[in-house]
Structures are given as structure tokens and as C-alpha cells.
User: Fold these one by one.
Assistant:
Number 1:
Amino acid sequence: MATGYRSIACVCVAVMAMFAATTVFGHGDVQPQAVDTTGLEPLGDEWLLENPYSGNERAIEIGGVGYSQNCARCHGIDAQSGGLAPDLRDIEPGAEGDEWYIDLTKNGYMQNGVEKMPAFDGILSQEAMWAIRAWLETKQ
Ligand code: HEC
């Protein structure tokens, strides 16, 4: 008898843990959110054309959070597209793709008057955008 009770309790805890995990994922990636970039070297007001944080561990950590809060709802969890928007594991890595990436993220993308991707200028800091780029590069 005692054993039976204990295994029921175990199942309950597991189910509760699953709910908790789903709730955390369910939130957070809906509204665009400012990203806390504490610990990164500030970049000033000039837009850079190359990622100053490429390979920077702190930036990669921050970028992963920034991505899941701001980009995952369209580009997919962990940069794996579910078909809604392009798979960002395929974009040009390194300095060659940096300028194109920052331009697109800053300005978003309009097609025939329809906003396909929102502009992140004014929502995310330059630091956050480059941190996301640094994280994306680890997924390629
Ligand atoms: C509302 C949905 C949406 C959100 C949110 C979004 N994107 Fe996009 N993104 C798109 C769509 C749709 C396209 C494809 C536009 C097109 O038709 O060329 C795109 C294209 C891109 C591309 C070009 C990919 C390619 O292969 O051409 C990059 C880079 C990109 N997004 C980065 C980001 C980043 C970084 C974020 C988060 C800061 C983000 N996007 C958030 C919808 C979104």
C-alpha cells in the first residue's frame, strides 16, 4: 500500500513540473521585450556594421534569451523554423552577413504594404540585436 501511494505522489509531481515548464514557455515569447544587456560593452548611438560580440560568451547567453522573447514566435524555438518565417540557421554567418542582418532587424520587412516582420529599432537596443546575432551564429 505504502508503495502505491508513493508512486501516485511521484506522478503528480512530474505532471506539475510539466505544467510549470509549459507555462514558462507559453509566456515570454508573445510581446516584444527589451533585453537586459548588462555585462556587455555598450556600443553607443552609431549603428555598427559588424558584430562586435561574435563569439562573446555573455552576448551569446543574452542573445538566446532575447531571441526566445522577440523572434521565436515567428522564426521558431531555438532558431528552427516551423515554416512561418525563414529558418535563421541558414543566414550568412560572419562579417559578410552582419550588415544585412542588422539592417533587417532594425527596419523589419514590408511586402506590398503588409508588415511581414516588425522593425525592432526602438524596441531592442543595438547591443541586444548583436547579442541575438552572436547566439544565432552558434546555431549554424
Ligand atoms: C512577426 C513575425 C516575425 C518576428 C517577430 C521576427 N521576424 Fe524575422 N522575419 C519574418 C518574416 C516573415 C521574414 C521573411 C521576410 C521575407 O519574406 O523575406 C523574416 C526574415 C528575417 C530575416 C531574413 C532571413 C532570410 O533568410 O531572408 C532575418 C535575419 C530575421 N528575420 C531576423 C529576425 C530577428 C533577429 C528577429 C527578432 C529580433 C525577428 N526576425 C523577428 C517574421 C518575423
Number 2:
Amino acid sequence: MRRVDDFRLRFGKRELVPIVCGGMGVDISTAGLALEVARLGGIGHISDAMVPTVSDRRFRTHFVKEKAKLYKYNAANSDKSDVQFDLGRLAEATHLHVGRTMEAKRGDGMIFVNCMEKLTMNAPRETLRVRLSAALDAGIDGITLSAGLHLGSFAQIADHPRFRDAKLGIIVSSLRALQLFLRKNAKLDRLPDYVIVEGPLAGGHLGFGLDDWSKYDLRTIVDEIARWLKAEMLDIPLIPAGGIFTGSDAVSYLETGAAAVQVATRFTVTKECGLPDDVKQEYFKSVESDVVVNAISPTGYPMRMLAKSPAIGAGIRPNCEAYGYLLDGTGNCAYIEAYNREVAAHPGAKKVSVMDKTCLCTHMRSFDCWTCGHYVYRLKDTSRVLPDGSYEVLTAEHVFRDYQFSAEHAIALPA
Ligand SMILES: Cc1cc2nc3c(=O)[nH]c(=O)nc-3n(C[C@H](O)[C@H](O)[C@H](O)COP(=O)(O)O)c2cc1C
């Protein structure tokens, strides 16, 4: 029986272990996690979601405080159109997060940054351009475009000196989304270097409808995309993602032509992962019925999470003066509308509960939205119970090597 280590992901002359640790914002896939995966010869992702916040935490900068102070006057106003990101500061924060990570890189692997288009930041085009350019300036090995169709993203950086040398890829959940992306970018004469095909069992936001996600299946989508690429004589590495839980799951894709696999949930219970220890234990302890796919993300995409997530139902005041990453180009966010509706319906109430939407910026920042892949409930089978009843937190190296070397769907427990 073959193992993941019998395969290699090839980028030109470069060979990598075909394991990609997916981006997990906000700082769940930390620099430490990405660095460890790169050291072991795979591809690790950091995320640029809420990068000023992440920079404040990592480097004791004061980007969030500064912005909150500047727009304090607007806190009680439901019109957030005034609240703009300073593009210079955004570039600075990206430089710090990406640059310091790249300086620390060791080993033969690579580090990519996950860039979500849905972080519209009250000026979608301008802010995305700064995020992408600054990451390239700071030496990132590659950029994975996610959470959106990204029809104009390549054009935003087409004049960057690293546009053709950095690895650029996109996450899609359907052949149609890929076709649209390729058609819109045909005139740039630059194909993506890889395409991550994310199925319905993934963590984070899903590229499917809330009512029909369960009708889809990763293998069918990967096969359909592979057949189409072949017919079009397009040679683009495909990287399936979503529900690949064992090395043998990964091998089943590699054997049928996938270039690598992207995985995430198994790394959420490693010591390098940014989730607080008590949240890691919630992931370990979860059972299948705890996992829900709901519509509380203001992005409009369904999201998978544990039903116990404190983010569900929390009716906090929108915090866009400090954050504001989901404000559309006119200063609106679906959470603001939902919050205002509840406040109006409960005059005089000290606290309201908002069930249909959540203030995702605040709750992702404080690790209160426990997003996870469908198989989160199998994490308990990947570790052992300690005398105090908690599960032993793993190392990223242990999980990586288990994917790389295990066979017959076995999962190695920590030594
Ligand atoms: C905690 C968590 C956070 C995630 N955050 C993001 C994100 O910010 N951007 C993104 O494109 N994908 C995100 N994902 C999706 C992963 O990158 C990955 O593609 C997917 O979860 C792989 O499936 P698996 O978790 O079943 O291995 C997240 C996944 C998890 C588990």
C-alpha cells in the first residue's frame, strides 16, 4: 500500500512533500504552524485576515488601537462609511507579518498566504491590491486566493515584479468557478500555478449553498475539473481539500492524479495552532451532532462550526471602528443590520441576542467562532486522554508525519 511520501508535488524543478496545511484565519494557522510545515518539506499557509490585529499580537504594534481612536466618534453611528483602513498602515502590517515569517523560514518547503476576497474592508479593490502587493514585496513564496471569485485579483498585481515568479493559486468549489476565473484572466497570459478544489466537508466558509452543500462530493468535483483541464490541454496541479483525514485518504487522491492535498482540521489540535488550549479541547471532545453549517457569517457564505461556539447568538455592538473587515464598499455589513433590528425590537434592553448573523471580526479575533471541518469529531481518535481527562495536544510534526507516512487508514497516536 502506498503512502503520501511515495509522491511529490512538483513546481518546476522544486519537489515538495504533497501536503499543504490550509490557511486558517484569524491567526489559527499561525506563522509557527506554517513554518513547521515548511520545515518538514510541505507547504504551510499563514493568513492575512485581520492582519493589523495579528501584527499587534505578534509584534506589539498598535494598529487596531490607532484606528479605533481615529473613528471613536462614529461608534454609535450605524453608517460606517467613514471608517476606512489606512492603506499605508495595512501595507506595514502585512510586511511585518509576512516578512518576519519568511525570515524565519527553514527547510525545503514553502510558505503561502491565504487572501480572502470577502474581506472587503470598506474599499474592496484598494485594500486587496495593497494586501497582495505587500505580501509579494515581503517575499512570500505564494498566494492562495480564497473566499470569492477573484475575477480581478491577478490584474491587481499584474504589474508587480514578482507576478510571474511567485506561486499564485486559487481555491474553487466548482468547475464553473474555475472556468470563470480562467476566462476573466485569459488576457494576462498567466495561468494559476495550482488550483485547490475545496469540497463541502471543509472548515471555514463553504463555496456551496446552505441548503445543498451536502449534495456535493469532493471526488466528483475534482474528477470533473481534471477531465475538463485535460480536454483543454491545461496542465495545472490540482489540490483537493475538505475531509481528507488520513494519509490513506490523501493517497487515494494522489493515486488518481492530484498533485497534493490540502488539510487543516487535524492541525487545529497541535501546539503550534493559534487556538487557545481550552478551544482545542472543545475540538477534541466534539461529537458529530455538535457540527453545524449555518448562515451566521455576514459574508453570505455558509460556514461550518461547532454549535457551542460563543459567536452564535452573541448580540455585541458592531466593532467596525476597531475592525471593519467585512464592511462592503459602502460601509455596510449584514451583522450591523441584524443587530440594529434586534435593538429596535427590544427597546431599553441592556443586552440583545442576534441569532441570524454574527460579528465575525470580533469573534474570529477572540477565537469564539469555532469553525472546523466536518470530521472534527474524529480528532479524539488522533490523541490520547491524559490523567486529568483532557486530550494530549499534538505537535504539528506528529500530524504532518502521520499524513506523510501512515498507511491503511491508520492514525499514529503520540509517543
Ligand atoms: C479552523 C479553520 C479555519 C479556516 N479558515 C480558513 C480561512 O481563513 N480561509 C480559507 O480559505 N480557508 C479556511 N479554512 C479551510 C482550510 O484552509 C482547508 O481548506 C479545509 O479546512 C480543509 O479541510 P479539512 O479541515 O477537512 O482538512 C479553515 C479551516 C479550519 C478548520
